[in-house]
Known about the structure:
The protein is an alpha/beta fold.
Amino acid sequence: TPGLPDDVFEHDGLITKRHIRASALALLRPLAGELLWDLGAGAGSVAIEWCRAADGARAVAVERVPERAARVAANSARLATAGAVRLVEAGVAESLDGLPRPAAVFIGGGATASLVERAVEALPAGGRIVVHGVTVEAEEVCVAAYRRWGGQLARLHHVQQLRQGGGDRRTDTC
């Protein structure tokens, strides 16, 4: 079941948090043998959980920041079936043309209108896309995409109280 604890992944804080990730995967609906594009993979958590959710599911994780790409590789080696996650260390825009056609696309925080359009064009009939708009600009992109193509538009806010070493720490995720 999707929703591995965040602390099983190596990350620098830029990770799709557990509860938000589980929601994204529910909407992406991984099926056996299908391919996911995880664009702006960060820690690779969405790609990895996609691959764990269905037999033979595969993912292409695109990440341009070298340190994060190294984390995607390490997390994939530890948490996914060997070869299930293919890492592309490059910017998203320049990497899309050579990728095999996906059944689903996940765009983390870096959504632009042109990126969403290219992702939608790459999807077959019945394909699924989830875009996380973590900035006001990305939210505007999501609203424009919703107006153009329909689908579902939701805003999730996640607050979690964590207890560590006798103290409390609160984390917020939108």
